[in-house]
Amino acid sequence: MKDIFTTKIGRFKLVALLEGLSFLLLLGVAMPLKYIWGKPWLVQNVGMIHGILFVLYIFQIIQLKIELNWPTGKTLLAIVLSFVPFGPFYVMQKMIPSMMDEVKK
Fold it and tell me: Rounded to an integer, what distance in angstroms lies between the CA atom of residue 100 and that of residue 40?
């Protein structure tokens, strides 16, 4: 738990978790409130937060690609998965550990 704030991978996992949650909140709660019940205020607020977290997520992926020399294909896959619901969770749980194993070899 301590590595969340002290390591690059820990910070990436935190940003990926928050970005994924904000995306799900935007799609699952805010958008229905706007288009079904005509209440756009949550889309405006959650949308801005999600946008900031999305940019941080992309910057984190680029930083880790440069610093840990990740393969370009896996880096692009991590970026593409940021557009898919639950994609950042997949990156956080499956791709990061496998990439770390490759870096250690």
Answer: 41
Residue 79 has pLDDT above 90, yes or no: yes
Domain edges within the chain? 9-98
The residue assigned the tokens 């370009």 is 72
Is the confidence at residue 55, as pLDDT, over 90? Answer: yes
Q: Are 15 and 62 in contact (CB under 8 A)?
A: no
Kindly state the DSSP code that residue 94 receives in the 8-state scheme: I
Q: Output the pTM of the full model.
A: 0.84
